[in-house]
């Protein structure tokens, strides 16, 4: 029975933002002048610094604090040129995920300017030249400039690192690839759709493409997505991002949201963004990111823009702050907050559960949504003091007082501690997907209020109640709010990083949550991750895993939180056991109603090939038994399938070797 407690009701202040607008955080124009000598900016994820190359006064790389825009130092500029001119000085900068810093000049064959690329191991090192060559594309058509360094993108790691660049009056994109000695070499040239079409911006989606490109000049092309051969895949509609001289381009993503942001330094010095979608067949469509007025003029020297005939601009995304940093030609260096379009951070009051996640108060957004199970939605986030869960529908508001809510945590994923057997009263569940160290058990209530419960901990041999949850106090290790005055179909939970909750020493963490009726045979109401089964007596197979729960990490970003499903795991395409087994991509794909899969075996083994839906439910077993060495063709046909994505899995001697996707279309 829930204790009757006297609690002090706190007025939870909800921070609101104006929707559909960029918010200027800070602006700086100390390095901006009419000679257009500052054209680029990079954010270093390793040091959390902004790096700004400039020829203002002398060639240098300025180090800035991203929070304030204050200059905090300079990198060593030894060897970066003396004159500070375009051909001998510095131009654009990029930083790869491993913290390597790359800088280039302008290279132009017609004036005998070598294209030069410098590499910095880190912000304290000196520059090392990793490419220095007079680039000649040997274009047989003639009439175009071999001009490089006006656009730049460096992506990848190690010998899978690529550099892409183009420039003025150029119909080519130069591709450099890093060799085993750590130098860039010419890999190939990509024929562009038109001259100047990548003059001002290249943003590679993956190390080998496709590429978002942007330019101006003769053809005023639209921002476009091209493949590795230069063929146009998609083009942003003029009504969303106008053509007419847009400069620079950046593709970036937040969870399942994908965006393209451009600047227009040629006409009006504004930012403009579009959201894009790619379906299973690779078809891309666009929509407004915000509405049809989502632009921001970045002009800070006077009241009118300084027209920039070079269209020089640059944009970089900071995923920890959800900010864009921009250099806008002769006008500004600035930081812009994107929360007005897509809010990814939820304000927290220290030690208090202060969340409303239904979206009505705009404090959470769809981005925080991580799954749907049995018509219940799970929202997830974390701060410096707790991890927060929110489950919609009448999860714990229950007149029968039977519904229970459980949150399970594995705080030592690489250790042997914990138990996969839940506490005895964890209704309807036979096994957890990991060896849990902590299980939070919450009771239902018949009205909105703070509810009670228990924090179970594994002592090495059995589950014990580490603490009892009672009322409005995060010090118990966890607290939960059932419903609220504005929405009673909601349960909100905070589990604390303290000794009564999860502790403070964990880094990598696994977690899952589920709701079930009381009793060992109780019905499971919902389970997350939502690929878990929901029948009575279920043994769960999937969990969320994070390497840490740091500030500003975004729960729906697979870089920070991933779903691991031990029953059905999708491996990278082409992954095989070398020299032993090869599972081909089905053909045709998409298919209707028949497709075939080729399996090559290096030896005689026991083979299972089965088809599953995306929830992990078995659709059909295609083969089961001993197969000899060699090539085997496996047919799959099912006229009763619903259109969608399916998985086919290869097991060798009872072990999962490979899993691939296929698409069925009626």
Question: Quick one: overall form?
Answer: globular
Uncertain segments are: 1-20, 346-367, 569-579
Q: Percent range for helical residues?
A: under 10%
Query: Beta-strand percentage?
Result: 35-45%
For the record, give the distance between the C-alpha atoms at the N and C termini, rounded to a whole number: 54 Å
| Sheet with the most strands, sense and barrel status | 8 strands, antiparallel
Q: Report mean pLDDT, rounded to a whole number.
A: 80
Task: Give a short synopsis of this structure.
With 666 residues, the protein is mainly beta. The chain has no helices and 50 strands.
Tell me about this structure.
The protein is built from no helices and 50 strands. Strand 6 (92-95) and strand 7 form a beta hairpin. The two termini are 54 Å apart. Strands 31, 33, 35, 36, 39, 40, 42 and 43 form an eight-stranded antiparallel beta sheet that branches. A six-stranded antiparallel beta sheet has the order 28-29-30-38-37-34, with no helix packed on it. Helix content is 0%, strand content 43%. Residues 1-20, 346-367 and 569-579 have low confidence and may be disordered. With 666 residues, it is an all-beta fold.
Question: What topology does this entry show?
Answer:
Blueprint: E1 23-28, E2 42-44, E3 49-54, E4 60-64, E5 71-74, E6 92-95, E7 101-104, E8 107-108, E9 115-120, E10 128-133, E11 147-148, E12 151-155, E13 162-166, E14 172-178, E15 184-191, E16 201-204, E17 211-214, E18 224-226, E19 232-235, E20 247-254, E21 257-264, E22 270-278, E23 284-288, E24 295-297, E25 313-318, E26 323-328, E27 332-337, E28 369-373, E29 376-382, E30 386-392, E31 403-410, E32 429-431, E33 438-442, E34 449-450, E35 452-458, E36 463-470, E37 478-482, E38 490-496, E39 509-517, E40 524-528, E41 538-539, E42 542-546, E43 562-565, E44 581-583, E45 594-601, E46 605-612, E47 618-627, E48 630-637, E49 644-652, E50 655-664
Parallel strand pairs: 32-41
Antiparallel strand pairs: 1-27, 2-3, 3-4, 4-5, 6-7, 7-9, 8-11, 9-10, 12-13, 13-14, 14-15, 16-17, 17-18, 18-19, 20-21, 21-22, 22-23, 22-24, 25-26, 26-27, 28-29, 29-30, 30-38, 31-33, 31-39, 33-35, 34-37, 35-36, 37-38, 39-40, 39-42, 42-43, 44-45, 45-48, 46-47, 46-49, 49-50
């Amino acid at each position: 029975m829930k204790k009757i407690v006297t609690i002090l009701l706190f007025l939870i202040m909800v921070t609101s933002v104006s929707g559909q607008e960029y918010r200027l955080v800070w602006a700086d124009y100390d390095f901006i002048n009419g000679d257009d000598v500052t054209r680029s900016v990079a954010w270093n994820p390793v040091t959390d610094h902004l790096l700004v190359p400039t020829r203002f006064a002398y060639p240098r790389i300025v180090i800035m604090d991203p929070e304030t825009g204050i200059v905090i130092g300079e990198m060593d500029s030894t060897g970066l040129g003396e004159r500070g001119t375009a051909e001998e000085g510095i131009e654009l900068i990029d930083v790869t995920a491993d913290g390597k810093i790359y800088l280039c000049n302008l290279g132009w064959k017609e004036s005998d300017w070598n294209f030069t690329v410098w590499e910095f191991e880190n912000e304290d090192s000196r520059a090392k030249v990793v490419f220095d060559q007079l680039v000649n594309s040997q274009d047989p058509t003639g009439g175009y400039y071999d001009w490089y360094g006006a656009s730049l993108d460096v992506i990848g790691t190690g010998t899978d690192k690529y550099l892409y660049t183009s420039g003025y009056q150029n119909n080519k994109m130069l591709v450099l690839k890093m060799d085993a000695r750590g130098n860039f070499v010419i890999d190939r040239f990509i024929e562009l759709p038109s001259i100047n079409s990548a003059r001002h911006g290249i943003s590679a989606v993956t190390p080998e493409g496709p590429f978002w490109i942007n330019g101006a000049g003769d053809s005023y092309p639209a921002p476009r997505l091209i493949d590795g051969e230069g063929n146009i895949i998609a083009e942003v509609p003029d009504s969303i991002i106008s053509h007419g001289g847009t400069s620079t381009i950046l593709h970036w993503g937040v969870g399942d949201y994908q965006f393209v942001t451009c600047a227009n330094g040629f006409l009006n010095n504004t930012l403009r963004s579009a959201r894009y979608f790619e379906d299973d067949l690779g078809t891309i469509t666009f929509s407004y990111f915000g509405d049809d007025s989502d632009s921001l003029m970045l002009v800070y020297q006077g009241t009118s823009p300084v027209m920039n005939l070079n269209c020089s601009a640059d944009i970089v995304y900071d995923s920890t702050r959800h900010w864009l940093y921009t250099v806008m030609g002769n006008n500004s260096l600035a930081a812009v907050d994107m929360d007005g379009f897509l809010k990814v951070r939820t304000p927290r009051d220290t030690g208090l559960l202060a969340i409303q996640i239904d979206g009505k108060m705009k404090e959470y957004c769809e981005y925080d949504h991580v799954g749907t199970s049995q018509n219940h939605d799970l929202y997830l986030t974390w701060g410096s003091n707790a991890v927060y869960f929110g489950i919609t529908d009448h999860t714990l508001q229950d007149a029968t007082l039977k519904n229970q809510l459980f949150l399970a945590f594995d705080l030592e994923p690489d250790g042997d501690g914990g138990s996969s057997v839940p506490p005895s009263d964890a209704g309807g569940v036979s096994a957890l997907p990991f060896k849990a160290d902590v299980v939070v058990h919450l009771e239902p209530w018949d009205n909105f209020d703070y509810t009670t419960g228990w924090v179970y901990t594994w002592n090495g041999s059995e589950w014990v109640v580490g603490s009892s949850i009672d009322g409005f106090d995060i010090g118990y290790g966890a607290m939960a709010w059932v419903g609220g005055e504005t929405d009673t179909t909601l349960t909100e939970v905070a589990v604390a990083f303290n000794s009564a909750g999860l502790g403070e020493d964990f880094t990598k963490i696994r977690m899952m949550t589920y709701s079930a009726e009381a009793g060992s045979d109780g019905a499971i109401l919902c389970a997350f991750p939502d690929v878990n089964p929901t029948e009575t007596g279920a043994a769960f197979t999937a969990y969320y895993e994070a390497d840490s729960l740091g500030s500003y990490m975004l729960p729906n970003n697979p870089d920070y939180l991933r779903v691991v499903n031990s029953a059905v795991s999708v491996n990278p395409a082409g992954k095989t056991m070398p020299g032993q087994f090869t599972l081909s991509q089905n053909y045709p794909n998409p298919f209707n109603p028949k497709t075939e899969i080729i399996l090559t075996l290096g030896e005689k083994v026991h083979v299972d090939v089965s088809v599953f839906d995306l929830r992990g439910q078995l659709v059909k077993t295609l083969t089961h038994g001993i197969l000899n060495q060699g090539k085997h063709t496996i047919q799959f046909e099912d006229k009763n399938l619903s259109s969608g994505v399916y998985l086919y899995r290869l097991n060798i001697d009872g072990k999962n070797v490979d899993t691939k996707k296929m698409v069925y279309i009626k």
